[in-house]
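Feature request, filed as a ticket because there's no other form

It would be nice if the structure record came with a short human-readable summary line next to the tokens. Right now we just get the raw output. Example of a typical job, pasted below so the devs can see what we mean:
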Amino acid sequence: MTSQTAPFGVVAEPGKFVVQTRPKVDTPPDGWVLIDICAVGLCGTDYHIFEGKHPFLDYPRVIGHELSGRVARDSLGWKAGELVVINPYLTCGTCRSCRRGKPNCCSNIEVLGVHRDGGLTPQLAVPAGNLIAAEGLTPHQAAMVEFLAIGAHAVKRSMINEGDEVLVTGVGPIGIGAALFARLNGGQVTLLDLDRARLEMAQKTFGFDRGFDSIEATLRDTDGFDVVLDATGHQAAIESGFVAVAHGGTYTLVSVVKDTISFSDPEFHKREMSLLGSRNALREDFDWVMAAIRNKDIDTDALCSDVISLEQLSERFSALASDRTELIKVIVQLQG
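Raw output as currently delivered:
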């Protein structure tokens, strides 16, 4: 059942972002809760959707999966006005991965803003089980939890421990998040990005001493890294990263590309390398991120590059997508 209308932020086709007026949900389905969206973080995924580079998407698409909001009315144990983080991964609960406690890679997953319409609109219905209480966080902080949880999940999946030498390639938001949580776990973190300006920005902002702008320079004084985390989103960069993994080390691919990745099998076996994919995040990763923010282990002010309105996004999306050197996280504020 629908009544009234609301603005929706839609990528109509590659290169075209529009604000459309559509009917809004008045009565959510059974088991779902109506949420007044407060803030939406813009992600590399959103820029890739705009650029036509995302492998799992059909157009047009309402984007927005880094979401914070307030419960619209008392429902299913949630109180009106309660601030929540929205877990954007809608899972089936019955497939093999769900039954094994891995809903982040559910075989029938639907991610808000990717496989189905997302939250760049003032109100959204969400399954009650996808809500996480955001007590102690601001709406802007709550909108940053999901992207940080992706990096946190990659760190846990890579089993990074105290003293491990860790290389993070690609210092966009996901790479920065992975680097921050690798450091929180005791890893000795080195950054790699071909964009020298972006690399220096990340080092200066977050206090990483070691950073390089080429794989050759990175490897000049080392025999490899215990863990390499790729967050570049580029085929050539992913393939070149194999040489940075030390014997007995782990290579974790956090970014997603459309391309087929190839590597030298003799080198892979000689090093007894572990190759991992890291997809989305688990509830425990969300909890780790929120605890880190509450404990001030993560500087969310440093992560937030700008706060804009939906109308401003309509004017600036193309420019934001084309030059992200100085950007970490742009927040679209819909309401308080």
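Something like this underneath would help us a lot:
The radius of gyration is 20 Å.
The mean pLDDT is 95.
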